[in-house]
Amino acid sequence: MPLSEYTMHNIKEFRLQDIQERLYKSKAVAILTGAGISAESGVPTFRGKNGLWKNFRPEELATPEAFKQDPRLVWEWYDWRRRTLAQFKPNAAHLAIAGIEKRIKEFTLITQNVDGLHQLAGSKNIIELHGNIWRVRCLSCGKITVNRVVPIKILPFCECGGLLRPDVVWFGEMLSDSNLTKAFVAIDNCDLMFIIGTSGIVQPAASFALRAKDEGALVVEVNIEKTPLSASMDATFIGKAGDILPQLL
Ligand code: BV8
Ligand code: ZN
User: Fold this and answer.
1) Which of 7, 102, 156, 182 has the fewest CB atoms lying closer than 10 Å?
2) pLDDT value, residue 56
């Protein structure tokens, strides 16, 4: 669809080209992405209809309790996700964000995704809020290493003998202080923030848009449907990230 077609529902009438103008005039831009930005690469979203795995909900498996209780089951789930992910490439939305970053003085990408597709697309200044599925961490010595072995031997152990876990943030676990601090600095300093492909349910990421607004930024949402965040956005563009974002380049 041509730029002008993308209207949205909100108080102030913004068209995509208005946002495009604002984008290249801004001093600092922050982008928050969720699972929706990887959907067009084939990666199943968390709360989409096809769900993520068998009849388990992420909130049941992505927890320290689940791992303690049944590390094999949790590793089977992560191994399945890693095997599925290994065949996927960044899509036009990931590439557009990497392209925008090159043209903005101060740019920060904050992602909730653990799939590593933003890195593959060439994004540089990334805050991986929820960790990365291609890293593992030893429960004994705490060593973090990149591990791209698919399928991974279940159960994987560190050379120190400790059990390895995925280096991701599970539900009920604290996000790393340094990541949160970096994210808040980016959010508080930006004059334009995009919220792309997230259902706005998982905290604390779901409150970042409001924080940016309180700090005076213009906040723009891109999603295939309205979310609980939409009502407080300055603009919401309904459509696929892979269609809309390249038009901002
Ligand atoms: C924390 C890593 C402090 C793992 C993830 C009640 C009880 C207990 C806890 C809580 C509670 N209430 C709140 C909490 C806190 C909890 C939380 O928020 N729970 C939710 C479920 C209510 N949060 C936490 O626990 C966080 N830690 O708060 O610490 C604390 C400590 C102790 C006790 C309490 C608090 C940690 C959260 C991190 C969890 N880890 N991932 C892994 O991935 O294996 S979260 C997981 O969900 C992913 O990271 C994912 O990115 C994230 C968010 O989901 P979305 O990205 O939004 O994806 P979703 O599928 O939901 O939506 C996709 C969207 O894309 C949709 O809107 C769709 O329309 C759109 N879309 C689809 N296709 C496209 C598209 N848009 C554009 N284009 C397309 N083509
Ligand atoms: Zn170890």
Assistant:
1) 102
2) 76
Q: What is the pLDDT of residues 55-79, one digit of tens each?
A: 678 888 999 999 999 999 999 999 9
Determine the distance separating the centroid of ligand 2 and the alpha carbon of 167, expressed in angstroms: 13
Same domain, 33 and 69: no
Specify the CATH number for the domain of residue 159. Answer: 3.30.1600.10
The answer to whether residues 162 and 240 belong to one domain is no
Structure tokens belonging to residue 26? 């801004």
Spacing, Cα 175 to ligand 2 middle (Å): 21
Note whether 211 and 241 are same-domain residues.
Answer: yes
* pLDDT computed for residue 7 by the predictor: 47
Q: Is the pLDDT of residue 159 over 50?
A: yes
Place of tokens 């094999």: 72
Helix intervals (H) in the chain: 16-25, 58-61, 64-69, 71-86, 92-103, 117-121, 177-189, 208-214, 241-244
Last residue of a domain, one of 111, 140, 168: 168
Query: Is 73 inside a domain boundary?
Result: yes
Is residue 144 one of the residues assigned to a domain?
Answer: no
pLDDT tens per residue across span 180-215? 999 999 999 999 999 999 999 999 999 999 999 999
Structural domain contains residue 94: yes
Question: Would you please indicate which residues are annotated as catalytic (active-site) residues?
Answer: 130
Q: Which pLDDT score is estimated for 51?
A: 62
Our mutation pick for probing the ligand 1 site, out of 117, 176, 203, counting the most ligand atoms within 8 A of Cβ, is 203
For the CA of 160, the nearest ligand: 2
Q: Identify whether the C-beta of residue 160 lies closer than 8 Å to the C-beta of residue 141.
A: yes
Q: What is the pLDDT of residues 211-229, one digit of tens each?
A: 999 999 999 999 999 999 9
Question: What is the number of structural domains in the chain?
Answer: 2
User: Does residue 71 fall inside a structural domain?
Assistant: yes
Beta bridge partners of 43: none
Which amino acids bring their CB within 6 angstroms of ligand 1? 34-36, 39-40, 45-48, 58-59, 62, 112-114, 130, 168-175, 197-199, 201-204, 222-225, 227, 240-242
